[in-house]
Design a protein that fits this description.
Layout: H1 4-19, H2 26-43, H3 50-59, H4 65-79, H5 85-102, E1 148-150, E2 156-158, H6 159-167, E3 186-187, H7 189-201, H8 215-242, H9 247-262, H10 265-273, H11 277-283, H12 289-302, H13 306-314, H14 317-327, H15 331-344, H16 348-355, H17 358-370, H18 373-387, H19 390-398, H20 401-408, H21 414-427, H22 431-438, H23 443-452, H24 455-471, H25 474-481, H26 485-496, H27 499-526
Antiparallel strand pairs: 1-2, 1-3
């Protein structure tokens, strides 16, 4: 219980706080104005004066590329938990420009990093706790969409961002790279409702604040344009440096492009537009392990943008990527080559092009067998994507993938086991796949998954069992019936399974029931 005296003291403090005025140090305000002055120069497509930039950075005690790297890492951490994504993204673009252009390539040094931290992977789409779901972010600004609209290509963006994009004279869809046949914007009311509900559940304000003429609002608007122009200048500078004869410079430039391409769709578009991809492809044949790793990882990050997929394939990169996958200089390079194939296989015609390369499938199967946990997941994701194209299923089955997948079903990593089972389920849609699965002694494992697995695993398990029993003959059906828990698990699936699992379980039970009735009838006649 709080005493009256304490209550009075708290009330006095609250009143004093209300009366207090925010004091901003004049020096800090001067620096802020200087930074935003430079941002406005970027927005006007003007190249800022290098001496001015150095003075600002020295005042901030940022004196070289190592200091820039430290600040970038701090901003990367902050952006994960902030609703000021556009402003922070602009500051990061500003820092990258100064790091590369102002301080010069000669000062750049490799920094300590966690393997894989500068690349995406095949499962990076999974939402992290406490972060805005990717489908709620505008692909242009990476901010939470508060007024989502649909453009002519069917992609969704925040109205303010796509309007700015169109007003700047762009005639293509930022995400797909396709030409916009018209510039009409259709409100996406369904997505807006979902975002509003998510904001309410997470105590995040959804409605936009009333517009005002405060400097902070103007600065925010300018900073998004500034980020784009700063990125274009940085990318152009780096591509010019890729033409250098120095192996050390090419290695470091590839690393900087790798970092730049990981952060935002605008960056990927800019890097592709300034012609970086052919130079990065050339680095895949480098004898230097780090240069090769940086090159393939930069291509992986760039390939997230649909338009860059086309540029990568048209540059003849496929053969080089496959070579890195099969005989790359390092584990991370091989893993990122697999993830790049997964990304490229998002385009239907590329599924066939990749599948027609025997070394690509063999390389993915090998990585699935002996790669790290992340590498195995990337390989499984790539194989699954390739098998969506029916002609690839026979190719993958003939490459000997089934025994590897069956072995992974017992993995202590549930997500890896789920991925392996998903590939088995799609392979079961081909005669070659079914033949390999039926000769793998996998039936007891599949039945056990029906009892103990996740909903997704149970769904895929019953799908494989149904395909085996439907086309594998009496011996397979008898094998399933011979496992006591099979029928109980299938009946349980009728109540708690996913809709697809329920349909598959119903069909499988009919097959098993017919066989059981046939056996009972034959036994009765024998008596």
């Amino acid at each position: 219980e709080v005493s009256d005296e304490v209550r009075e003291q708290v009330q006095l403090v609250r009143e004093q706080v209300r009366k207090a005025k925010l004091h901003i140090d004049p020096g800090e305000e001067y620096l802020r104005q200087g930074v935003f002055s430079v941002m406005r120069e970027f927005a006007r497509k003007a190249t800022p004066d290098s001496s001015k930039l150095k003075r600002i950075f020295q005042s901030l005690q940022i004196n070289d590329t190592n200091d820039c790297n430290k600040e970038l890492r701090l901003l990367e951490e902050e952006i994960q938990h902030s609703d000021k994504v556009s402003t922070i993204s602009s500051l990061m673009s500003f820092l990258r420009y100064c790091k590369c252009v102002v301080y010069g390539m000669a000062e750049m040094e490799e920094i300590d990093r966690t393997p894989g931290s500068e690349s995406v992977s095949a499962d990076d789409c999974h939402e992290k706790d406490g972060q805005i779901p990717d489908e709620f972010k505008c692909p242009i600004s990476l901010d939470l969409m508060r007024d989502p609209v649909i453009v002519a290509t069917g992609q969704t963006y925040d109205r303010a961002s796509i309007t700015r994009w169109i007003e700047e004279g762009q005639s293509t869809c930022p995400k797909s790279g396709l030409k916009l046949i018209h510039t009409g914007l259709i409100p996406n009311y369904a997505l807006r409702s979902l975002i509003s509900q998510w904001c309410q559940e997470h105590n995040i304000p959804f409605e936009r604040k009333e517009k005002s003429n405060r400097p902070s609002d103007v600065d925010s608007m300018a900073s998004t344009r500034a980020a784009l122009e700063a990125t274009k200048m940085t990318a152009t500078f780096l591509v010019e440096k890729l033409k250098s004869d120095s192996p050390e410079v090419r290695r470091q430039v590839a690393y900087e492009l790798r970092l730049l391409a990981k952060c935002g769709m605008d960056n990927r578009v800019c890097i592709g537009e300034v012609g970086a991809i052919p130079y990065l492809v050339a680095l895949l044949s480098s004898e230097d392990p780090k240069t090769q790793e940086n090159g393939v990882t930069a291509l992986l990050n760039l390939s997230i943008y649909e338009g860059n997929k086309v540029l990568i394939m048209e540059s003849g990169a496929l053969e080089s990527i496959i070579k890195v996958l099969t005989s790359g200089s390092g584990t991370e390079a091989r893993e990122n080559a697999a993830a790049t194939l997964f990304s490229l296989s998002g385009v239907d015609e590329y599924k066939d092009a990749i599948g027609r390369q025997p070394e690509a499938i063999l390389g993915l199967v090998q990585l699935l067998h002996d790669g790290s946990a992340r590498g195995k997941r990337d390989a499984a994701a790539a194989l699954f994507a390739l098998c969506v194209h029916h002609a690839n299923r026979a190719r993958v089955a003939k490459a000997g993938v089934v025994p590897v997948l069956v072995e992974l079903l017992s993995s202590h990593r549930s997500s890896l086991a789920e991925d392996a089972l998903a590939v088995l389920a799609v392979l079961a849609g081909s005669a070659e796949g079914l033949f390999a699965i039926s000769h793998s002694s996998v039936i007891p494992t599949l039945v056990n998954i029906l009892r103990m697995g996740s909903p997704r695993s149970k769904e895929n398990s019953v799908a494989v069992l149904l395909a085996l029993c439907r086309y594998g003959g009496d011996q397979v059906i008898e094998s399933v019936l011979g496992i006591p828990s099979a029928l109980l698990s299938l009946h349980a699936l009728l109540s708690i399974g996913t809709p697809r699992a329920k349909r598959k379980a119903t069909s499988l039970l009919r097959i098993l029931q017919r066989k059981w009735d046939s056996v009972q009838h034959a036994s009765h006649n024998a008596d």
